[in-house]
From TrEMBL:
Residues of the GCN5-related N-acetyltransferase Rv2170-like domain: 73-131
Pfam families linked to this entry: FR47 (PF08445)
InterPro entries per the UniProt record, alphabetical: Acyl_CoA_acyltransferase, GCN5-like_dom
One GO MF term: acyltransferase activity, transferring groups other than amino-acyl groups
Name of the protein: GCN5-related N-acetyltransferase Rv2170-like domain-containing protein
UniProt source species: marine metagenome
Length: 322
């Protein structure tokens, strides 16, 4: 088994993509983009690529990403083995080793996501535990359960700044989303809901969903950070065509007083793009969120929608400075 850091040789990256397509299907979209493998995020994240090789071909992979600012956190992704080599325990050997490496270098919480029950059982045997309200699991360095860890993680967080989201938030975004938020819709721009409403399936994919706003929707997103760059809030803006934009966002329940500034940041970005219309989609049951955004200037309801056969009723509000 080889353990490597970016930048990888393009030939190796091509091999990894071929493996993933073989293992997961031709429609597979990696949560670890090529720019990570080529070292373009080295300024923000430490990346370790674990590979098994046979006859100069990559037959098994796993990738661990850790933010430099919060090395206690990590995300594990793209754990895969060529079907021809399954049953040999390659993934088990790899995940056992990478978990040891992670904790020996100061890691505390290593997240992963899986919807495969067979894979989940393997992770359980290696020390991962399930996180309520999600298909995510976490491997902790001590005997704490996840609830104890997350309480300590966010304890006494001091908001420091709101900024355009950077790759350093790729992993710290995960624990924020996994909180049991009272607001049912966290961010309609990326179809993100509270785990109280819908089980969270994404792990490393959370950052990819937000980046999609930039790369495909002519949008932007912003993060509320602590001094050590824990993510405690997010806002976003998505282009809807004809110079129309939609904004949304959420934050840690203890810091809802910063939510106004988060949304205003997204609104001001839309204004800088000469937006003709700015809207906000909100669930009727999220009364406190609705009250906040109305005070910002989203006053006029322009339509109502239903999601999932009337389970969740939403309103779309129009921004006005009047």
């Amino acid at each position: 088994m080889k353990v490597e850091n970016p930048p990888l040789n393009p030939r190796i990256v091509c091999q990894m993509h071929e493996l993933w397509f073989t293992a997961f299907g031709n429609d597979f979209i990696s949560d670890v983009p090529d720019e990570v493998l080529y070292g373009e995020e080295d300024r923000w994240n430490c990346v370790h690529i674990y590979r098994h090789i046979s006859e100069h071909q990559t037959i098994s992979t796993a990738i661990v990403i850790r933010p430099h600012s919060i090395p206690a956190l990590g995300g594990l992704g793209e754990v895969s083995t060529n079907p021809k080599f399954r049953g040999k325990g390659l993934a088990t050997v790899t995940c056992r080793q990478l978990a040891e490496d992670f904790h020996e270098t100061g890691g505390v919480a290593l997240f992963l996501g899986t919807v495969n029950p067979d894979a989940a059982r393997i992770y359980e045997r290696l020390g991962w535990q399930h996180i309520n309200g999600s298909k995510l699991m976490v491997n902790l360095s001590d005997t704490d359960n996840y609830d104890d860890f997350i309480q300590k993680y966010f304890y006494d967080s001091i908001p420091s700044k709101i900024c355009v989201a950077q790759p350093g938030s790729r992993i710290p975004l995960i624990p924020l989303v996994l909180l049991p938020h009272d607001w049912s819709i966290l961010d309609s721009n990326v179809s993100l809901y509270s785990i109280n409403v819908e089980p969270q399936l994404s792990c490393l994919g959370l950052y990819r969903r937000y980046e999609y706003l930039r790369t495909h929707c002519q949008g932007e997103w912003f993060t509320l950070l602590t001094e050590d760059e824990r993510v405690i809030g997010v806002s976003s803006a998505s282009y809807k065509g004809n110079n129309r934009y939609q904004v949304d966002g959420f934050c840690h329940p203890n810091y809802e007083n910063f939510f106004v500034k988060l949304i205003e940041t997204a609104v001001n970005w839309c204004k800088s793009r000469q937006a003709a219309e700015i809207t906000f989609k909100i669930s009727q049951q999220d009364r406190s969120k609705k009250h906040i955004v109305r005070n910002i200037g989203f006053n006029t309801m322009i339509k109502e929608d239903y999601r999932d056969k009337n389970i969740l009723k939403t309103q779309t509000l129009l921004y006005s400075t009047d």
